[in-house]
Amino acid sequence: MKPARSEKKLVQPHSWAQLKNGQWVNESIQTRLDEWCPKLFGYHMLKLGGLSCELTSCNCNIQHQVNLDIHNPLHNVIADGYDLPFLEKSFDTVILAHQLDYCNDPHRMLREVDRVMIDDGYLILTGFNPLSFTGLASFMPWRKNNLPWSGRMFTTSRIKDWLGILNYQVVACDQYGLFPMQTHRTCWTWLENSIGDWATPMGSLYFIVARKRTYPLKPIKPHWKLKRKLTPVGVNYKVSSKSNCTKS
């Protein structure tokens, strides 16, 4: 397993137009985000990265939304994702669209996001699946230096492990896009639906919704034990022993 931290300088996309089939990827994420927006409540939402800034959330109950990026013109805050200029527990929801795929230290970014997240807040993550046709294409020499294959893709199980360490509960995980082809998309979608759920782990994209918990997900058992009560068996044993002594 490759380490999460990379010394290689990664080119981070700031617009969906930079990615191959980026429009379709954007639309697929937007469809799932529209389903979750009415379920999100609070006062402040953070969209981290240029790809997150281009996602719309007009039907969300959270009115104050912050777009943070350096190059995307839709930003309203310019800052580094590793050092967010916000106080602790400031946001009710944070959206990370394909940010872990193109950052050198995903652990550091998740810890920084966790710092500004309130208790029981929602974290929405999207990214590419390395165990898919898109992930396998990154091994081709003429593609590995081009977007989106130049990023570092992580499996959903690994993302869930990182979230579990930070005490996040994954409430939804959707893997889709077995055939991420933009041309003749209707035919490919019909073929993907006809295959069934068995091919879900090979989906090219994942959409994860996790919630920050303030209590341990696994309860710790107490070390102390209750004393055993006196049972009728023990009383009968003592009485029988006394009667034997009297007879002797």
Automatic annotation (TrEMBL):
It comes from the Bacteria. GO terms for molecular function: S-adenosylmethionine-dependent methyltransferase activity. Residues 74-125 form the Methyltransferase type domain. Pfam families: Methyltransf_11. This is Methyltransferase type 11 domain-containing protein. It comes from Vibrio scophthalmi. The lineage of its organism: Bacteria, Pseudomonadati, Pseudomonadota, Gammaproteobacteria, Vibrionales.
